[in-house]
Amino acid sequence: MRASTTGRVLHDPKGGSFRFDAGAVCLDFAHTGGEGRYAVFETLHDPGDLGEWLAEPPLSAAPTVPVTGSELKAGKALRQAIWVVAHDRADDRPLTPESVAIINRAAAAPALAPELNADGTTAAWAQPVQAAQALSSIAREMIELLSGPLAGRIRQCAGDNCPLVFVDSSRPGARRWCAMERCGNRHKLRALRARRAGDRDLLN
Question: Which ranges does the record mark as transmembrane (predicted)?
Answer without folding.
Answer: none
